[in-house]
């Protein structure tokens, strides 16, 4: 009887251990996604405050303190799109080109592609 209880207890503990490991893995993925999202948001805000030349159709910059890339994409209709990416997370800020300089809309932030063609929202 004691051996049976030990065997059942051992099986229960093994099952709980596996369940715990699976949950721990999911938490790790979620932490990485949150970190990447925060980095992309920070890159986007930093890039919005920078001075961008409105002549080159694609310009990219990196910040030493933040992992990821930041690019400004200019379109033929004088629209501008600031794209920040960190890990698998992307964020966008819409704007326009006026007098050869990029200006960003006050409420242009987006966590989904604001252009019709998704390829225009990818980092070059």
Query: How is the biggest beta sheet arranged?
Result: 5 strands, antiparallel
Indicate the percent of residues in helices: 25-40%
pLDDT < 50 stretches = none
Total number of β-strand segments? Answer: 5
Relative strand content = 25-35%
Using only C-alpha atoms, the radius of gyration works out to 23 Å
Q: Mean pLDDT score, rounded?
A: 89
Alpha carbon gap, first and last residue: 67 Å
Number of helices: 1
Order of helices and strands: HEEEEE
Q: Provide the structure class.
A: alpha+beta
Q: Major sheet: order of its strands? A: 1-2-3-4-5
Overall outline: rod-shaped
Give a verbal description of the structure.
The chain is α+β, with helices and mostly antiparallel strands and 124 residues long. Helix content is 38%, strand content 31%. The protein has one helix and five strands, in the order αβββββ. It has one helix at 2-48, and strands spanning 58-61, 69-74, 79-86, 89-98, 101-110. The protein has a five-stranded antiparallel β-sheet. The protein is rod-shaped and about 85 Å long. The N and C termini lie far apart (67 Å). The mean pLDDT is 89.
Please name the defining characteristics of this protein.
124 residues; alpha+beta; 5-stranded antiparallel β-sheet; 1 helix; rod-shaped
């Amino acid at each position: 009887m004691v051996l049976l209880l030990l065997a059942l207890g051992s099986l229960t503990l093994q099952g709980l251990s596996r369940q715990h490991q699976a949950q721990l893995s999911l938490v790790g993925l979620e932490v990485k996604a949150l970190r990447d999202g925060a980095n992309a948001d920070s890159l986007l805000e930093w890039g919005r405050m920078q001075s961008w030349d409105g002549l080159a159709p694609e310009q990219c910059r990196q910040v030493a303190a933040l992992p990821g890339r930041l690019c400004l994409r200019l379109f033929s209709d004088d629209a501008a799109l600031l794209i920040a990416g960190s890990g698998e997370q992307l964020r966008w800020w819409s704007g326009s080109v006026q007098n050869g300089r990029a200006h960003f809309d006050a409420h242009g932030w987006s966590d989904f592609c604001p252009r019709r063609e998704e390829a225009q929202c990818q980092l070059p």
